[in-house]
C-alpha cells in the first residue's frame, strides 16, 4: 500500500515549523535593530559631545578668531536658513511646475525621458553640482556668493521636488479632474484649484523632505558659498553655513572648535529632525468631527 | 458666445446664465424638439474604432436611456456628447453632433463651452475633497469667474433644492463635501452639475454605487428633472431604464442596434438582439 | 445564451400543452359518450374534470411566481400572461365538456330524438379549431390562428340552424321538449367551446407577434356571415 500523502503536518513537523518561524522572527528583529542602531549611535554621540556646548552664546555669537575660546555659530545658522530660503525660491516653483507637467501634460515618450533625466540628476554627486555652479556663477562674477550657494542647492532640489510632486499628483483620482472639466472649468484652472489643491499636503511634504536633504549638503557649498567667519556683507558675498562651519572646525586642531563642531552638527540634526516631525504631522490622517 | 461669457462675471444676478440659449424653463413642456442631432458619428481610440456610424436624434426635455452590454460603446457615446473622450489622447471622430442646432465639434467651439451646456454626473460620486458642500455646488460658477455673492447664494439654494438635498444640508453648508453619505454625495454632484444651468444632463450609471433607497431618491430626482432638462442616462439596470426613460437606445459592439420608445423596446423590440439583451439572455 | 429560467419556461409551456390535450380529449370523449349513449364513459369524464381544474390552478400559480421572481420582459412576459389566459379558456372548455357529459347521461335514459348529425359536425369543427389553436402554440403560424378565428362563424351557423330545427321539433311534438332542450344546451356548449378556441387563437397571435387582435374590425366582419 503506497504511503499516504497528508496535507496535515504531523506533531513533530508542527514543532519544527514553529521553531523555524521563531528563529526567523528573531533574525529579522536583529536586522531591524541593526538598521536603527546607527541612528541611535549618531544621536547619542551628537548629544553626548555637543549638548554641553549648546548655550545662548552658541546661537548668538560669531566665531571667535583662531585660537580664542568661545564664540558661536550664529552666522552659520542664519546662513543655512538663508541658503535654504534661496534654494526653495528656485527649487519649489520649477520643481512643482515640472511635476505638474509630468503628471498632467506631455506625451508618454517625452515624459519618460524627463523622468529619466530627473532620476539621473537626483543621482549626481553633490560635489559635481558645486563645481558646475562654481563654473557658471562664481567664476564669471569673480566672487563666491550666497546666490551661488542657493542656486546650487536649488538646482539639487528641482528634480527631487519634481518627482515627488508628480507622484502625489498622479495619486489624485482621475474622477476629480473629470468632474471639474465636466463643469466647463478650463484645464489649467482644474489643475491649479482642484488637482494641486487636493495634493497640496503631499506636495508640501515633498518640498520639506527635499529641503531637509539639501540642508545638510556640504560639498556644493564648498565652491559656491565658501564660508565666512563673519556676517556676510551681502548676498553676493561668501556666506557661512552650518555644514561648512562644521567641516572647517572639525579639521582644525583646536578642541574648543571640535566641541563647537559637535554642537553645530547637533543643531543641524535637530533642524532635520524637526522638519521630519513637521512632515509627519502634516501627513497625519485627519478625522472629521 | 465666448465674448458673452467673459463679460458675465461683472453682471448683476439678473443676467442670463452661462449658456447660449434662454433658460430651459421657458420652453413649453411637451414639444418634441430635438436636443441632440447626431449623424453618422464614429469614434476611434487610436486605431481601435469604438463607435460605428451612429445616427440618432435625442429629444429635448425627455429622459433617454442608453443600454447595452459591457464594452458596447455606451459610455464612449455618452462622453462624446460633451467631448469628454478628448481627455484620452489619440481619439478622433467623424460625423456630426449637434446640440439644438449647434455643431459641438466645430473648430469655432472650445470644448469648455460645450461642457457648460452639457453637464455630466459620474458613476462614482466625486465631490471635491478640499471643498465644503457650498463650495462644491458653486465650484462650476466660481471657477468660471462668477463673483456676485447674492447670485451665488441664490444659485446654491436653487441647485440644492433641485437635487432634493437642500433640507438635509441647509444648516451644514460649511461641512466638507466628502462628509456626506454616498447617496447624498451623488445628489451633491448633481446639484453641482445643475448649478451651472446646463441645457442637458448626462448621467453615467449614476446609481450603480448606491443602495436601493438612495437609488430611489435619485430616480425620483431624475423624473423631476426632465421637465426642465434633457437627460441622457447610461444604465446597465433594465428595470431602471424601464422606470425612468421615455426613449431607450440599445448599443452593441459600438453600433446603435435599436432606438425607440421605451415601451416598445421592453414590450416588443424589433431586433432579436435587443430582445435577447433585455430578457437577460445575452452572452 | 440559455439561462436557468428557460427550463422553467419550458415546464410552463408543457403544462399548458398538457392541459390543452386533456381538454381536447375531454370534449372528444364527451361527444363519444353522447353518441354511444354511454353513462359510464360520461361519469369518467365528469371525474376527470378535476385534472383540468388542478392544471389551471398550477399554471396560474406558476405564472404569478414567475412574474414576481423573474421579472419577465417582452416575449417571456407575453408567454406567462397568455398562459394564464389560455388556461382559463381551457378550463372553461373542460367545464363545457363536463356539461355535455352530464346531459349525455340524461339523454341516454331515453331513445335519441333524431340521428345526431349536426352535433358531431359542430364538435368536429370545434375540436379542429382547438387543435389548430394549440398547434400555434408549438409553431408560430399567424395564418392558421386567424383561420381558427374565422371558422367560429361556421360553428355559430350550425348552432343557429340547430336551434331552428329543434324549436320546430318542440312545437310539433311537445313530448320531445325535454330532450330537445338538452340538445340545445349541448349545441350551446359546443358553440362556447369554439368561442374559447377562438380566444386561444387570438392569444397565440398576441404571444407570437405582440399584436392584440381581439375585437378588431377584421375579425368582427368575419364573424358576421349571412344567416
Radius of gyration of chain C, in Å, reads 19 Å
The biggest beta sheet of chain A is recorded as: none
| Tally of structural domains of chain C | 1
Distance N to C terminus of chain A: 69 Å
Strand content of chain A: under 5%
Assign the CATH architecture of chain A.
Orthogonal Bundle
* Counted beta strands of chain A: 0
The CATH class of chain C, by name, is Mainly Alpha
Helix content of chain C: over 70%
The helix/strand class of chain C is mainly alpha
Question: What fraction strand of chain C?
Answer: under 5%
Describe this structure in words.
The complex is a heterotrimer of chains A (289), B (283) and C (227). Chain A has 289 residues and is mostly helical. Chain A has helices spanning 11-50, 56-60, 74-104, 108-123, 126-141, 146-171, 174-182, 187-215, 219-222, 242-251, 255-282. Chain A has one domain (75-282): MetI-like fold (Orthogonal Bundle), CATH 1.10.3720.10. Chain A is built from eleven helices and no strands. The model of chain A has no long low-confidence stretch (mean pLDDT 88). With 283 residues, chain B is of the alpha/beta class. Chain B has a domain at 29-126 and 183-278: P-loop containing nucleotide triphosphate hydrolases (Rossmann fold), CATH 3.40.50. Helices cover 34% and strands 24% of the residues of chain B. In chain B, strand 9 (247-252) and strand 10 (255-261) form a beta hairpin. The longest helix of chain B has 14 residues, at 149-162. Chain C has 227 residues and is mostly helical. Chain C has a single domain (4-223), classed as Methane Monooxygenase Hydroxylase, Chain G, domain 1, CATH 1.20.58. Chain C is 84% helix and 0% strand. Chain C has helices at residues 4-36, 39-70, 75-108, 118-138, 142-172, 177-209, 217-223. Classes of the chains: A mainly alpha (289), B alpha/beta (283), C mainly alpha (227). Chains in contact: A-B, B-C. Chains B and C meet through helix 9 and helix 11 of B and helix 3 of C.
Amino acid at each position: 500500500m503506497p504511503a499516504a500523502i497528508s496535507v496535515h503536518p504531523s506533531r513533530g513537523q508542527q514543532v519544527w515549523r514553529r521553531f523555524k518561524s521563531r528563529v526567523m522572527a528573531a533574525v529579522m528583529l536583529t536586522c531591524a535593530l541593526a538598521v536603527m542602531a546607527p541612528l541611535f549611535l549618531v544621536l547619542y554621540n551628537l548629544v553626548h559631545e555637543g549638548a554641553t556646548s549648546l548655550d545662548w552664546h552658541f546661537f548668538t555669537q560669531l566665531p571667535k578668531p583662531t585660537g580664542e575660546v568661545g564664540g558661536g555659530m550664529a552666522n552659520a545658522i542664519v546662513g543655512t536658513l538663508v541658503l535654504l530660503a534661496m534654494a526653495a525660491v528656485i527649487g519649489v516653483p520649477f520643481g512643482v511646475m515640472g511635476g505638474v507637467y509630468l503628471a498632467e501634460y506631455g506625451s508618454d515618450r517625452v515624459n519618460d525621458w524627463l523622468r529619466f533625466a530627473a532620476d539621473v540628476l537626483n543621482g549626481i554627486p553633490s560635489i559635481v553640482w558645486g563645481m558646475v555652479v562654481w563654473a557658471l556663477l562664481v567664476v564669471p562674477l569673480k566672487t563666491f556668493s550666497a546666490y551661488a550657494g542657493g542656486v546650487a542647492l536649488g538646482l539639487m532640489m528641482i528634480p527631487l521636488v519634481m518627482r515627488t510632486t508628480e507622484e502625489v499628483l498622479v495619486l489624485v483620482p482621475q474622477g476629480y479632474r473629470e468632474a471639474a472639466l465636466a463643469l466647463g472649468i478650463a484645464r489649467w484652472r482644474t489643475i491649479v484649484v482642484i488637482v494641486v489643491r487636493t495634493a497640496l499636503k503631499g506636495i508640501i511634504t515633498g518640498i520639506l523632505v527635499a529641503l531637509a536633504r539639501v540642508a545638510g549638503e556640504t560639498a556644493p557649498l564648498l565652491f559656491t558659498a565658501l564660508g565666512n567667519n563673519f556676517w556676510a556683507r551681502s548676498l553676493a558675498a561668501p556666506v557661512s553655513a552650518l555644514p561648512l562651519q562644521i567641516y572647517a572646525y572639525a579639521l582644525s586642531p583646536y578642541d574648543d572648535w571640535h566641541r563647537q563642531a559637535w554642537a553645530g552638527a547637533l543643531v543641524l540634526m535637530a533642524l532635520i529632525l524637526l522638519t521630519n516631525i513637521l512632515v509627519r504631522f502634516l501627513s497625519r490622517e485627519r478625522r472629521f468631527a | 458666445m465666448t465674448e458673452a461669457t467673459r463679460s458675465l462675471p461683472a453682471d448683476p444676478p439678473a443676467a442670463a446664465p452661462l449658456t447660449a440659449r434662454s433658460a430651459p424653463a421657458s420652453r413649453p413642456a411637451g414639444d418634441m424638439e430635438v436636443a441632440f442631432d447626431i449623424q453618422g458619428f464614429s469614434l476611434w481610440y487610436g486605431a481601435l474604432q469604438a463607435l460605428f456610424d451612429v445616427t440618432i436624434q435625442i429629444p429635448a426635455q425627455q429622459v433617454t436611456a442608453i443600454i447595452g452590454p459591457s464594452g458596447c460603446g455606451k459610455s464612449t457615446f455618452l462622453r462624446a456628447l460633451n467631448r469628454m473622450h478628448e481627455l484620452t489622447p489619440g481619439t478622433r471622430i467623424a460625423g456630426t453632433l449637434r446640440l439644438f442646432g449647434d455643431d459641438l465639434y466645430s473648430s469655432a467651439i472650445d470644448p469648455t463651452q460645450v461642457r457648460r451646456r452639457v453637464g455630466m454626473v459620474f458613476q462614482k460620486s466625486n465631490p471635491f475633497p478640499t471643498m465644503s458642500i457650498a463650495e462644491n455646488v458653486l465650484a462650476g460658477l466660481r471657477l468660471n469667474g462668477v463673483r456676485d455673492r447674492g447670485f451665488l447664494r441664490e444659485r446654491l439654494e436653487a441647485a440644492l433644492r433641485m437635487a432634493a438635498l437642500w433640507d438635509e444640508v441647509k444648516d451644514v453648508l460649511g461641512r466638507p463635501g466628502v462628509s456626506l453619505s454616498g447617496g447624498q454625495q451623488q445628489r451633491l454632484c448633481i446639484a453641482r452639475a445643475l448649478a451651472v444651468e446646463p441645457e442637458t444632463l448626462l448621467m453615467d450609471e449614476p446609481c450603480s454605487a448606491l443602495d436601493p433607497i438612495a437609488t430611489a431618491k435619485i430616480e425620483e430626482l431624475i423624473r423631476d428633472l426632465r421637465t426642465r432638462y434633457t437627460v441622457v442616462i447610461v444604465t446597465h439596470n433594465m428595470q431602471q431604464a424601464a422606470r425612468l426613460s421615455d426613449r431607450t437606445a440599445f448599443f452593441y459592439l459600438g453600433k446603435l442596434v435599436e432606438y425607440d420608445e421605451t415601451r416598445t423596446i421592453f414590450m416588443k423590440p424589433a431586433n432579436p438582439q435587443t430582445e435577447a439583451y433585455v430578457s437577460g439572455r445575452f452572452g | 445564451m440559455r439561462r436557468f429560467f428557460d427550463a422553467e419556461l419550458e415546464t410552463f409551456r408543457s403544462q399548458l400543452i398538457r392541459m390543452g390535450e386533456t381538454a381536447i380529449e375531454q370534449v372528444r370523449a364527451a361527444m363519444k359518450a353522447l353518441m354511444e349513449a354511454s353513462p359510464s364513459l360520461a361519469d369518467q369524464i365528469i371525474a376527470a374534470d378535476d385534472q383540468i381544474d388542478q392544471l389551471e390552478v398550477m399554471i396560474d400559480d406558476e405564472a404569478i411566481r414567475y412574474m414576481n421572481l423573474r421579472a419577465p420582459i417582452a416575449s417571456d412576459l407575453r408567454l406567462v400572461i397568455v398562459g394564464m389566459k389560455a388556461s382559463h379558456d381551457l378550463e372553461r372548455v373542460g367545464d363545457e365538456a363536463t356539461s355535455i357529459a352530464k346531459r349525455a347521461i340524461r339523454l341516454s335514459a331515453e331513445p335519441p330524438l333524431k340521428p345526431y348529425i349536426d352535433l358531431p359536425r359542430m364538435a368536429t369543427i370545434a375540436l379542429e379549431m382547438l387543435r389548430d389553436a394549440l398547434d400555434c402554440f408549438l409553431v408560430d403560424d399567424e395564418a392558421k390562428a386567424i383561420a381558427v378565428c374565422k371558422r367560429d362563424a361556421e360553428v355559430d351557423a350550425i348552432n343557429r340552424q340547430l336551434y331552428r330545427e329543434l324549436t320546430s321539433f318542440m312545437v310539433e311534438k311537445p313530448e320531445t321538449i325535454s330532450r330537445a332542450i338538452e340538445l340545445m344546451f349541448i349545441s350551446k356548449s359546443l358553440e362556447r367551446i369554439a368561442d374559447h378556441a377562438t380566444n386561444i387563437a387570438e392569444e397565440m397571435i398576441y404571444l407570437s407577434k405582440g399584436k392584440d387582435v381581439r375585437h378588431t374590425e377584421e375579425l368582427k366582419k368575419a364573424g358576421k356571415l349571412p344567416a
